[in-house]
Specification:
heterodimer, A: mainly alpha, two-stranded antiparallel ribbon, B: mainly alpha, two-stranded antiparallel sheet, 14 helices, globular
Chain lengths: 342, 442
């Protein structure tokens, strides 16, 4: 029981880290066609995440791999139930990944326009779809006793699911705008700050609506009513959101980005804690739900994986933090003349 | 069409496409690290230019390898959910370890390598190149441990209809997987060596950047020579292990129907699976199959007829795949030995350079055939002897799989074309005269 519970929260942590890191890439990619007015600005925008996006995306691979390893039944049921949605995420992520590398390799506006479009779709669509997918998990999925999914892509596009999509897009847009604000100067910087300031009230409103809608559409609040101390995570998320506004006013954009990161991690954990111990709740009958206790691997696998993760995730975090520090300087027009830049 | 068939087609197509890029990533990362290390040791700018030129081609290829790799991890869940539920305990953990131990390393440091030329010291930057090479090849180890377990499951027990892990070290030291790893790593280096030699030959034939490409060619030649021999020698011990663990695969790859001692190898044949015989057999070498499988001319080799029909792999495909791989492998040894003899007079032997230019696709073909042998030859099992492929697919609608398959064909064709165009274009353009990055507009 304890081992499975630990794994449940590690599982949540990996998703939270994925949303925190690749989330700003998704936000930037979505804002990219609107904020980049000139070719130079476009390249600056891409290069603000250039050295980091690939490492960020591995949190997704790891979250997926850990779901497979620690909760095989959740992995197999979730991935086959969400077949079409996941294929859409996959294709759009593929397009985003090659775009960064391919875009600058041919000096032709038409060639570049193709990849500009791919960057936008490959950032916006995964953000939206991950939101839709997670909101549906919070809400419950029509799976029967054997774990068979009784629905299709449109089952997922219910109002609460779509609200989850909007929530993720809003969180990531502000997250990305703040990253740009911290990493650029001049007109682009001003535009990024303005975007963050305009989107912030929207983000706040969507968060409040989502929390309220969760009370109506899901059982997420049950754990909080049972253990009110858990509401600390909601308070931290709100503190993060308010911090964004405060630090924008003080022109401390790294701190504002950090607040946004806190908000995203805590928002993810709001859902994860609310779910516990369920991982893939059934909307048909409660006892068809997959939980950390009925869908996990053997204790031996969980133990070995725990050792691996406890050793390697801190190492990964250490070198990723080092990489973030190494590339914390602002990206300027001059830095684009390095032939290695995207 | 049924879900199993469509899912198999999709997995085969996406894996084979993915593996067009993986071997070059594995091999060229090592060659790049060597080039950059030589630059740090000697201070010779030519090595720096080599690192940057080959690095550019490496990165285009790397991007395609990374994005197509995610597809595979997703597909175990989307298309093979019954398999995933069955083996998650073991197979899933190996994938998760791969991501946290190796893939993070490779993906994080690739960004640092691309953007870090001015931020890191020369030495630190070369260390980063080695970390990328290590990350990629350690990734391969864990992926092959996962595949090795499908080929030859060990260290598990069956409980509630699922394979549960009982002995982690048996899984990690699975001989089948280790042999696959020792075959895949040199195969990647071999492919990368032929890639470098082929493109160098293109420029040497045009008599341009002669010093640059002569040095590139000779460096790659060393890797090519060593690995072409290594792959063949290692492949031999691999065959012995296959004989021991997967008799059906051994029989199918040789289209060997009757159980006999002194089992022969047939150089060419047309297997007739319906009538359980070979239609035409050319060049029968008695005893050689016994020797291949058991290192003993007199050993008894089980024929396909003694394996129940529903446990035989598709014979023709397995047979052709094995022959193509071995034939090409032999050719690689001849080509690299010839190269060694001509290494100081490459320019005087345009015929050889032309041969090497046209040989670029051959290691790709050999490697794809090797995987065809490994995977098709394992059928009808998805986990050898435990779970059949036909029982492993997801309970999804065939329309969904048909739709995603069509999308893969479309998207991958376009990506493949774009990637090939970019690599060919940059390869043909040749290196920059001066290493850029010194404030001049690119």
């Amino acid at each position: 029981m304890i081992l499975q519970s630990i794994w449940f929260f590690l599982w949540g942590l990996l998703w939270a880290l994925f949303f925190m890191t690749d989330g700003f890439d998704f936000g930037i990619g979505t804002l990219y066609p609107f904020l980049g007015k000139t070719e130079e600005e476009k390249r600056i925008i891409i290069n603000t995440m250039g050295p980091l996006w690939d490492g960020n995306e591995v949190w997704l691979i790891t979250a997926g791999g850990v779901t497979f390893a620690a909760f095989p039944l959740v992995y197999s049921t979730m991935f086959s139930s969400f077949y079409t949605a996941l294929m859409l995420i996959l294709f759009t992520l593929i397009l985003r990944g090659v775009s960064f590398e391919f875009r600058g390799k041919v000096e032709d506006p038409r060639w570049k326009r193709i990849w500009d479009y791919c960057i936008f779709v490959g950032s916006f669509a995964p953000a939206l779809l991950f939101g839709v997918a997670f909101a549906n998990i919070f809400r419950g999925i029509p799976i029967d006793k054997t774990g068979l999914f009784r629905g299709n892509l449109f089952t997922l596009l219910n109002p609460y699911g779509l609200l989850g999509g909007v929530l993720f897009v809003a969180l990531f847009l502000v997250h990305g705008a703040l990253w740009l604000a911290a990493k650029t100067e001049g007109d682009l910087h001003d535009r990024a700050v303005r975007t963050a300031s305009i989107l912030w009230p929207v983000e706040l409103a969507v968060v409040v609506i989502f929390l309220a809608a969760s009370a109506a559409a899901t059982d997420l609040w049950a754990n909080y009513l049972r253990y009110p101390a858990l509401m600390l995570v909601i308070l931290l998320a709100v503190a993060g959101l308010l911090g964004i506004r405060i630090f924008i006013s003080r022109k401390q954009f790294w701190a504002a980005w950090g607040s946004s990161a806190l908000a995203i991690v805590c928002a993810t954990f709001f859902g994860i804690i609310g779910l516990f111990p369920k991982m893939f709740p059934s909307s048909i009958r409660d006892d068809y739900s997959l939980t950390a206790f009925n869908a996990s691997s053997s204790p031996l696998t969980l133990k070995i994986m725990l050792i691996v993760v406890l050793i390697f995730i801190p190492i990964v975090l250490a070198y990723q933090i080092w990489a973030y520090k190494l590339f914390s300087a602002k990206v300027t027009g001059e830095s684009l003349y390095d032939d290695e830049a995207y | 069409m049924d879900v199993v068939f469509l899912s198999r087609l999709q997995f085969a197509a996406t894996t084979m496409f993915h593996f067009l890029f993986v071997p070059l990533t594995l091999g060229l990362s090592v060659i790049l690290a060597v080039m950059e290390t030589r630059y740090v040791q000697t201070g010779d700018e030519l090595y720096l230019r080599m690192t940057k030129f080959w690095g550019k081609l490496f990165l285009i290829n790397f991007a395609l390898g990374v994005v197509t790799g995610i597809t595979l991890e997703f597909q175990f869940g989307t298309n093979w959910s019954r398999y995933s539920a069955y083996v998650g305990d073991i197979f899933g953990s190996l994938l998760a370890i791969e991501a946290s131990v190796a893939f993070f390393l490779e993906s994080t440091f690739i960004g640092i390598w691309i953007f870090g030329w001015k931020k890191l010291s020369k030495k630190a930057h070369a260390v980063v190149a080695w970390l990328i090479a290590a990350g990629g090849n350690i990734s391969a180890l864990w992926i092959l441990l996962a595949n090795g377990w499908m080929q030859h499951p060990v260290g598990y027990t069956m409980r509630d209809g699922r394979a549960e892990l009982t002995d982690f070290s048996a899984v990690v030291f699975n001989k089948f997987a280790i042999l696959e790893f020792l075959h895949t790593v040199p195969a990647g280096l071999l492919l990368a060596a032929f890639f470098v030699m082929g493109i160098s030959a293109y420029h040497l034939l045009r008599r341009q950047h002669i010093e640059f490409f002569t040095r590139s060619f000779r460096l790659a030649l060393i890797f090519g020579l060593i690995t072409s021999i290594w792959v063949a020698v290692e492949g031999d011990s691999h065959a012995v292990h296959v004989a021991e663990t997967q008799p059906a695969k051994l029989a199918a790859m040789e289209a060997h129907w009757e159980s006999t001692r002194m089992a022969p190898i047939v150089l060419l044949a047309i297997p007739d699976e319906k009538n359980e015989r070979n239609m035409i057999e050319i060049g029968k070498l008695p005893g050689l199959l016994s020797f291949l499988g058991y290192h003993d001319f007199n050993a008894r080799v089980v024929g396909l007829k003694d394996i129940p029909a529903d446990q035989r792999p598709p014979v023709t495909l397995t047979f052709i795949a094995f022959r193509t791989m071995v034939g090409l492998g032999t050719l690689f040894i001849l080509l690299t030995i010839t190269g060694w003899l001509l290494r100081n007079k490459l320019l005087e032997n345009p015929w050889y350079l032309r041969l090497m230019l046209w040989s670029i696709p051959l290691p790709y073909l050999a490697i794809e055939m090797g995987w065809m042998l490994a995977e098709v030859g394992r059928q009808p099992w998805i986990v050898y002897g435990l779970l059949k492929t036909s029982d492993a697919a997801s309970p999804v609608a065939s329309g969904q799989v048909a739709g995603s398959l069509a999308a893969f064909v479309l998207v991958y064709s376009l990506l493949g074309a774009a990637g090939f165009y970019l690599i060919a274009r940059n390869a043909a353009r040749g290196p920059e005269e001066q290493s850029a990055g010194n404030g001049q507009p690119a």
